From TrEMBL:
InterPro entries: Aldolase_TIM, NrdG, Organic_radical-activating, rSAM, rSAM_sf. Transmembrane segments: none annotated. Keywords: 4Fe-4S, Iron, Iron-sulfur, Metal-binding, S-adenosyl-L-methionine. This is Radical SAM protein. The keyword Lyase does not apply. Gene3D superfamilies: Aldolase class I. Its cofactor is [4Fe-4S] cluster. The keyword Cytoplasm does not apply.
Amino acid sequence: MPVLYIHDFIPSTAAEGPGQRACLWVQGCSVRCPGCMVPHTWDQRKGKATDTHTLAQTILAVPGIEGLTVLGGEPLDQAAALLPLLQTVKAVGLSLMLFSGYTKAQLQAEGCPDKQAIMDLCDIFVDGPYVQALTDFSRPWVGSSNQQIYFQTPTYQHLENKLSDIQNKVEIRIDENGGVKINGMLPAEKFRLLRQLAADLGKQEI
């Protein structure tokens, strides 16, 4: 089975797209947007090599989720390894949301069959790099106004004209060893402050 280099995986979250979803961050990014909030996901060599069959079974075993969201890094840098995983997820009826730093036009012009197949699988496809000068958090899930949210199937098309009603969410997880994980969408300065507060909380004895 293909090996996918991943940064992190959360079995269930309400902060990364519509409803309750599994969320996968791939490791490695060729886009490398200036001002990126997660530059630690750029170097693929720092990722965890993961068997996609095992990962698919892990996702399918999560109770109560309606879909999978895939972020990065840049997911389409590993399109060949990612495609079988996403086909398995879709085959059982889960929805798919995916973020790419490339635009649909760029990807279509490239003509890579694996990348096109992944785009075609998506119920929601979010494209475009984060542009620091265009920072905008008025819409959910994205950080700059140039990024486009494409509702490609009927599954979530009812949300297309209601984005202003959807609030961004942030989740904090503190494990038993005081390790902190934060996911969701916030302005960078608020994200850094929240991360520090959570880290301080994680060090306290309960």
